[in-house]
Write a structure and sequence with these properties.
- This protein is mainly alpha-helical.
- It folds into three domains: about 90 residues, no CATH class; about 325 residues, Rossmann fold, CATH 3.40.50.970; about 70 residues, no CATH class.
- The protein is built from 24 helices and five strands.
- Strands 1-2-3-5-4 form a five-stranded parallel beta sheet, with helices on both faces.
- Helix 3 packs antiparallel against helix 4 and helix 3 crosses helix 5.
- It is globular and about 100 Å long.
- The protein starts with a helix and ends in an 8-residue tail after the last helix.
- Thiamine diphosphate (TPP) binds next to helix 4.
- The site of thiamine diphosphate (TPP) has 20 residues, from helix 4.
Length: about 600
């Protein structure tokens, strides 16, 4: 097929938001003008003007009636097309574009510049922790690149979304991607919750003064981590069941209904673990709108691309949409918006969807001139769109997962979404900011040491106030307690109820039964001699259970509905008391 024809078919694909079926015949409108080589004939005699009119009428509908009405009309058109005999090809994919367009983005509520400075300090300390540990002990391990790619995804969460547990509110539950742990420690260091000594002993918890575990684990750090999230695949599966259990407790009146969310952060490579996607249909079947997945799509895993010859983001989108999830793609940063705006023909979005991940990874490590030639250069009209931009600006076109405004918009839409769980597919660069030391490179996952020059480049890029000499020592850096950064960071956490992650144990305790309670059983067991049968143990347990049910001094199980007065003596925190019991808590009436 000649290039010109292929392009026109592609263009109509974008309009349809579909992949054109292979058997769709393309009739070339040979009479269409080819002015300066950019006007290309379109199929079935449809000309550009007609396409433009359809697009404009959709735009005006959007403007006058909003996205809900526009969606309804498109759905009706689709249904009408089907009954009219048009065999629309099936696709679970939307174009390779942001789900939330620029014009529907909410205002970013924070101080973006200040948040960037805080994030830069966290980046530096996370890197310093791994580099220092590996200087002291060769091959101690740890990961720099995972957090480097996910920093914005976490910081927007910490500054605006993750609510801590308070006496009044159960708090959000956050499953952190295990390999991003250095960044979470580095934030806790700025918050004043983890000492420099502990950072120094990363991965060496038994050193004098204590250290930090490689990955999240409540056994190893019982006051900090709430869940283990490595091996990969654990957190998505646990998050689904956590969200479901939360709803179970609410539906049975065992805890008050709240809008608390369960967040799970995972890597795109991690989604290949069978546990990761194994229960996603359960989440949609149960309508778990208290659940948000954030997939950090840096397109890489251990030593290469997740899908060199395909598109992991599109693949995940169809898997999650097919399973009934709300999918939000955050692919392109704000710098792309004016270019997209100039592109009235949808050519850029089409082009974005053409590249496979291996090609995108190549663009990440190349110059702006290369991006111009090999990405925009596929069509003279695309080249025209970026003509005013210098090469350096093309190299610096950010991806969506590194843009706080885009990430904020996605998180806000996710927490407000009703009736379905949400997955956010955020595109990032693995090793973001490492430059020659590993930004977007296949080796980046294993990067644990940086040379002097690489450290200085990183320091300068993120504006860390260390001179050339000091910076090669990779010291931990924390601004003064009264600095604007620390004040801001503390204020944000205060507004969200406190620090996260933080593990606190709240188990209702049961008093010890007096020995005489079990006297009869013990006497009979004694008669059995040295090796009593197993029944005395179970008899003791049964006795405890009976006592618990009658709630003489413990929490009744919810089956004690017939004995509500038991709740009067219950020492459980109020949110554990069922709604029906709370109402009658001070009365003696039976519900
Ligand atoms: C079950 C399991 N298999 C393999 C590993 C080894 N491993 C550690 S990190 C990693 C790649 C992670 O890739 P991805 O999920 O894309 O995260 P990224 O670091 O790129 O953000 C692998 C395979 C593991 N930790 N757990």
């Amino acid at each position: 097929m000649p290039q010109a024809n292929r392009m026109n078919r592609d263009q109509s694909d974008v309009m349809n938001n579909e992949t054109t079926a292979e058997n769709n015949e393309i009739a070339v409108n040979s009479s269409a003008a080819t002015d300066n080589g950019t006007h290309i004939p379109v199929p079935h005699g449809l000309d550009d003007l007609e396409v433009q009119e359809w697009l404009e009428s959709l735009d005006s509908l959007l403007e006058s009636s909003g996205p809900e009405v526009a969606t309804e009309i498109l759905e009706r058109l689709r249904a009408h097309a089907t009954v009219s005999g048009i065999d629309l090809p099936f696709t679970a994919n939307t174009p390779y574009a942001n789900t939330i367009p620029n014009r529907l983005e909410p205002l970013f509520p924070g101080d973006q510049e200040l948040e960037r400075r805080i994030k830069s300090l966290i980046r530096w300390n996370a890197l310093a922790m791994v580099v220092r540990a590996n200087r002291v002990e060769h091959n101690i391990g740890g990961h720099i690149s995972t957090y480097a790619s996910a920093a914005t995804l976490y910081e927007v969460g910490f500054n605006h979304f993750f609510r801590a547990r308070t006496p009044e509110f159960e708090g959000d539950t956050v499953y952190f991607q295990g390999h991003a742990a250095p960044g979470i420690y580095a934030r806790a260091f700025l918050e004043g919750r983890i000492s420099a000594q502990k950072l120094e002993n990363f991965r060496r918890e038994l050193k004098p003064g204590g250290g930090l575990s490689s990955y999240p684990h409540p056994w190893l750090m019982p006051d900090f981590w709430e869940f283990p999230t490595v091996s990969m695949g654990l957190s998505p599966l646990m998050a689904i069941y956590q969200a479901r259990f939360s709803r179970y407790l609410e539906d049975r009146g065992l805890k008050p209904a709240t809008d608390a969310k369960i967040w799970a952060f995972l890597g795109d490579g991690e989604t290949d673990e069978p546990e990761s996607l194994g229960a996603i249909t359960l989440a949609s079947r149960e309508k778990l709108d208290n659940l948000v997945f954030v997939v950090n799509c840096n397109l890489q895993r251990l030593d290469g691309p997740v899908r060199g010859n395909g598109q992991i983001i599109q693949e995940l989108e169809s898997a999650f949409r097919g399973a009934g999830w709300n999918v939000i793609k955050v692919l392109w940063g704000s710098e792309w918006d004016p270019i997209l705006e100039r592109d009235t023909e949808g050519l850029l979005v089409k082009r974005m969807g053409e590249l496979v991940d291996g090609e995108y990874q190549k663009l990440v490590v190349e110059s702006g001139a290369y991006v111009r030639q090999h990405f925009f250069g596929s069509d003279p009209r695309l080249l025209q769109l970026v003509e005013p931009l210098p090469d350096e600006a093309l190299r610096r076109l950010r991806l969506g997962g590194h843009d706080p405004r885009k990430v904020y918009a996605a998180y806000k839409a996710a927490v407000e979404h009703k009736g379905r769980p949400t997955v956010i597919l955020a595109r990032t660069i693995k090793g973001y900011g490492l430059g020659e030391a590993g930004e977007g490179k296949n080796v980046t996952h294993q990067q644990k040491k940086l040379n002097e020059e690489e450290l200085q480049v990183f320091r300068s890029r993120f504006g860390i106030p260390l001179n050339d000499q000091d910076c090669v020592e990779v010291p931990f850096y924390r601004p003064a307690e009264d600095s604007i950064e620390i004040q801001y960071l503390r204020a944000r956490r205060e507004a969200l109820g406190g620090y996260v992650p933080k593990r606190s144990v709240r188990v209702a305790t049961f008093g010890c039964r007096p020995r005489r309670t079990f006297q009869g059983i013990l006497r009979m067991a004694a008669r059995a001699g040295k090796s009593p049968p197993p029944w005395p143990t179970s008899a003791c347990c049964a006795k405890c259970f009976v006592i618990r049910k009658s709630a003489s001094s413990s929490c009744p199980s919810f089956r004690t509905r017939r004995a509500p007065s038991a709740w009067n003596r219950c020492s459980a925190p109020p949110e554990f008391i069922p709604a029906w019991a709370r109402n009658i808590n001070r009365s003696t009436s039976t519900p």
